[in-house]
Amino acid sequence: MSLRFILPLALAVGLFAYAVMPVVNDMTLRWFVRDLDARSQMLASALQQPLLDYVPGKDQRKINQLFERSVQDGRLYALAFCSPDGRVLYRSASYPASLGCRATQPTLDMQQSLVDLPQGKVHVTESQLMQGTAVLGKLILVHDMSYIERRTAETRNYLIALFALLAVVISLITVFIAHLSWRGWISAVKSILHRDEPSPRGSSAPPEVQPLVGDLRALLHDMRVERRGEGVSSISWTPEKLRSLLHDELAGDQILVVSNREPYIHTRTPEGIEVRRPASGLVTAVEPVMRACSGTWIAHGAGSADRETVDANDHVAVPPKKPSYTLRRVWLSKEEEQGYYYGFANEGLWPLCHIAHVRPVFRTSDWEQYVAVNQRFADAVIAEAHGEDPVVLVQDYHFALLPRMVREKLPRATIIMFWHIPWPNPESFGICPWREEILEGLLGNTLLGFHTPFHCKNFLETVDRFLEARIEHEASTISYGGELTEVEPYPISIAWPEPFPLSVPECRASVRKELGLPDNHLLALGVDRLDYTKGIIERIQSVERVLELHPSLIGRFSLVQIAAPSRSSLDEYQNLESRVRALALRINKRFSSGSYEPIILKIHHYESEDVNRYYRGADVCLVTSLHDGMNLVAKEFIAARDDERGVLVLSQFTGAARELHEALIINPYHIEQGAEALYRALTMPEGEQRERIRSMRSLVRDFNVYRWAGRMLIDAARLRRRERVTARIHSQSRKPLRRVV
Length: 741
Ligand code: F6P
Fold this sequence. Notes:
Layout: H1 3-54, H2 60-70, E1 76-82, E2 88-91, H3 110-113, E3 114-117, E4 120-131, E5 134-144, H4 146-194, H5 210-234, H6 239-249, E6 255-258, E7 265-269, E8 272-276, H7 281-293, E9 296-300, E10 315-318, E11 325-330, H8 334-353, H9 364-384, E12 391-395, H10 402-409, E13 414-418, H11 426-429, H12 435-442, E14 447-450, H13 453-466, E15 470-472, E16 477-480, E17 483-489, H14 504-515, E18 522-529, H15 536-549, E19 557-564, H16 571-591, E20 599-602, H17 608-617, E21 620-623, H18 632-640, E22 647-651, E23 664-666, H19 671-682, H20 686-702, H21 705-732
Parallel strand pairs: 6-9, 6-12, 9-11, 12-13, 13-14, 14-17, 18-19, 18-21, 19-20, 21-22, 22-23
Antiparallel strand pairs: 1-2, 1-5, 3-4, 4-5, 7-8, 10-11, 15-16, 16-17
Helix pairs in contact: 1-2, 1-4, 6-7, 6-21, 8-9, 9-10, 14-17, 15-16, 15-19
Bound molecules: 6-O-phosphono-beta-D-fructofuranose.
């Protein structure tokens, strides 16, 4: 037994002995004295009559006999009878002479009736003897108190013993119960820690553990993610590493990628057929992965010469200069492209998921095309699959329904989807008329990835709001119709670039020469698709403001805005282009002098080599998106600056802002703040530039796109192994196969 048990027990007994016992003693003494008072009164009444008979006749002998007989009662110690003037007339032999006829008051005041004598404490009472109205004298009764002290001591000892015994018994019972609860608690916690899968709601954990279940699971999930992350971050991610990972983890498994945008577009020009890479974050990220792992990429063949460059199976080997994987093109009619791509995907889902204050448009005809085209692509996946369980990597919001469509035909496929744009909160998503269908389609995935934990949380909450699904927030899984989908954040990135053929000073000179600017001209750079989510208007307004606030920059500084035309048949995009052009024109008029223009608009497509040359030639890169899943321009700029110079101004509403903390982070809606950040960037000392960009470069180098793909594929391999085990168990029990929880 530990001190923790003995010490409180000893304290309780000590407290009882030294604080409680005197009170108990005092109380028992009062009871006994009251008892003796009553007894004395009774005795006095009983002696009244004999004394009335003997006292007037002064019958000494009879009185003595009466007194001696009375004191034979062990408790009555002595008796005396005093005259009214205070002389002892008669007394028993035991009556202490020292008491004499002293007046005592037979009152309730205990102190007054108790007298200390050499032989011990005695209780003294007196009672008057009356004959008619005449006082004959008073009878004094003396009771022995020694037996009372004996009894009090006995009672005290008994109480102490009883209390100690009670304390021991209660303590033992408490220890026993605590031990039992502790064991129950520990085994409940153990079962939570050892359980592989999250248990159903209302699990068997005892009620006292219930408040901890959520926290424990969240902790476990974090630890698992961290452990996975640690393993993954200790790897130096390269194409070779990704290839060997695919070989180790998914040996011989077929990889199929599905996206709307194709990685290479063949276009007919007067000079012949040209191949070009589209301006697309998705292509930037997925293409290096496909180069590393081969496989087949299924995408919409949108180029004017695409049909001429495929074989009989609609296949073309890419990249054109060094083929390493297959591009399978899917053909869409004008109506299909209009309804599915321009309509539902880009007038509906795109503004729905981006908070850029452009209203989504939903039309039934667009939705019908979206369903039909998703089915067309799902059929293409099924046709390209060599076996029953390929690994299918579905890209983006164009294919929300495809995962379930593929799942229906290939129940054993591992379907991983990455949603390249933000996922809004349930209220925002809830305005989509086909919200349930979209969510059900997405829950056909084995694994669903978003850029940030915040988007994952929004998705889980959206499913919770609109579907009857079981959600384990801590494990980040959704069980719907008996099937499980894991939802995880995978921040996308870029491939670390090869050394650029031109040095930074050469790029600076080349860019300025191309723009007809002097060598020391300060340049800020924007590179985007011409899209209303990118904050291009706000960026240009910040440039105007910086020139107002710092007129010394006029003539010495310009913004080069490269804007690749995008979705140009949509009104919203045409309006944006007109507004951007008009704003640039107005500002240029206001500040231009000679050939100087503060806003240099380049609204056309630039190949990646040219974009890189501009990244290296600029002083500042402006990324001012109003809302952006990640924004790879920010990472590309950082990666391009091997001179460790240049400043990144970055919107707080991008996924990139969660990783690139050393950028100058701004709220793009706040024009003055943007202008101040721009000025600070243009005047930042070189030492500070180096320090900031060095730290960001090391992050982007390590957290590159191979890591993004590698993490998803490692998770897919883990889920795939689990599914194979589940499939074996089901085949043994001859039950139909489901991706069960
Ligand atoms: O970055 C988001 C994204 O939708 C990508 O997924 C897409 O490839 C890119 O924007 C370009 O859009 P689009 O393919 O419509 O030109």
